[in-house]
Structures are given as C-alpha cells and as structure tokens.
C-alpha cells in the first residue's frame, strides 16, 4: 500500500481521529513502559552502544516540550493557557531527557509538567514549570540509573535547575 493509499483509507474511516488516540492513551499504563525503557537503556549502556562521548564525557540534553494542544478538548490534567485574544487553549507539556553526542541518541526519560499544586485537591490554572518537573526527572533518573549515566547535563533556560 502506498503512502497516498494509506492516507485515503484513514480519511475514509470516520471512527479514527486524534481524539480516539488521546482517549485511549488517557487510560494507558505508563509504569510497564517506563520499566522497559530503563531496562533497554541499561542494556544499551552495558553493551557499549553509547560508548561515543564528547571529549570523554557522556552528555544528555534536558528540555521541555508541548505535545498536546486544543482549544476545545481537555481533561483534568490539562493546563489552561489563556491567550491575549481571550481564548483558552488546553495543553500537556513534559520535560524530556536524551543522550547526545553519540551516533545513537537514545531517549532516557520524560516527566510531565503538572498543573499547579498537584498535591492539593485544588488545580488552579497554570503549571508548575520546567524547573520543578526537571528536578523531579533528574532525581528519578539518578534513582533508576545511578549517578554514572550522565557526566554533563545540557539545558536551555534551566541553568538554575538546582537553585
């Protein structure tokens, strides 16, 4: 089947849309996926597949990204972004960590950026920010992989990550 034929089949199926995918992922268990990622990454490191370094150092990049945005569809975990034109968009964001400087650049981990004050019952508009999620991600990566996985961490505006 060619790419064009596949697109035509998808367009013909009225029951397939991004909302169906989002709804399915809402109930998706991420813990087994995270365990598989940790196991795979440890195997990659043991087998020397990321033996490439930058001047002898293993380098990882940490940055935030937005992976869902809608003006109409939202869930309890969405962050509300109020635009200057008066509309509200609902978004999901995460902080991602991946190995850089080698031929193989494996994805290491991700951490969601949560709405404000996730531990209380009150979920006000906004979000906790990349710094909070970044700290949580680094602490989790250290507990899962140990301190020797990454020698240098590169960040964009997260220069005060540990302040």
Describe this structure in words.
With about 160 residues, the chain is α+β, with helices and mostly antiparallel strands. It has one domain. Helices cover about 30% and strands about 25% of the residues. Strands 1, 2, 3, 4 and 5 form a 5-stranded mixed β-sheet that branches. Strand 3 (about 90-100) and strand 4 form a beta hairpin. It is elongated. The N and C termini lie far apart (about 55 Å). The model has no long low-confidence stretch (mean pLDDT about 75).
What is the 3D form? elongated
The tally of structural domains comes to: 1
Mean pLDDT metric: 75
The succession of helices and strands, N to C, reads HHHEEEEHE
What is the first-to-last residue Cα distance?
54 Å
Largest sheet: 5 strands, mixed
Radius of gyration: 19 Å
Going by helix content, strand content and strand pairing, the class is alpha+beta
| Count of helix runs | 4
Low-confidence regions? none
Please state roughly what percent of the residues sit in beta strands, choosing from under 5%, 5-15%, 15-25%, 25-35%, 35-45% or over 45%: 15-25%
- Could you give the count of β-strands? 5
As a percent range, the share of helical residues equals: 25-40%
Question: What is the structure about, briefly put?
Answer:
The chain is of the alpha+beta class.
List the defining traits of the structure above:
about 160 residues, alpha+beta, five-stranded mixed β-sheet, 5 strands, about 25% strand
């Amino acid at each position: 089947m060619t790419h064009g034929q596949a697109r035509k089949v998808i367009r013909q199926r009225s029951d397939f849309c991004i909302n169906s995918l989002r709804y399915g992922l809402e109930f998706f268990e991420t813990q087994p996926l995270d365990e598989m990622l940790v196991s795979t990454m440890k195997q990659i490191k043991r087998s020397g597949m990321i033996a490439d370094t930058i001047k002898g150092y293993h380098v990882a990049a940490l940055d935030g990204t937005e992976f869902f945005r809608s003006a109409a569809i939202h869930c309890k975990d969405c962050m509300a972004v109020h635009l200057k034109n008066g509309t509200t968009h609902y978004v999901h964001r995460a902080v991602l960590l991946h190995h850089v400087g080698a031929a193989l650049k494996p994805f290491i981990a991700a951490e969601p950026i949560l709405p404000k004050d996730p531990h209380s019952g009150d979920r006000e508009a906004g979000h906790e920010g990349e710094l909070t999620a970044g700290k949580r991600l680094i602490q989790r990566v250290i507990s899962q992989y140990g301190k020797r996985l990454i020698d240098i961490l590169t960040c964009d505006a997260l220069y005060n990550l540990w302040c």
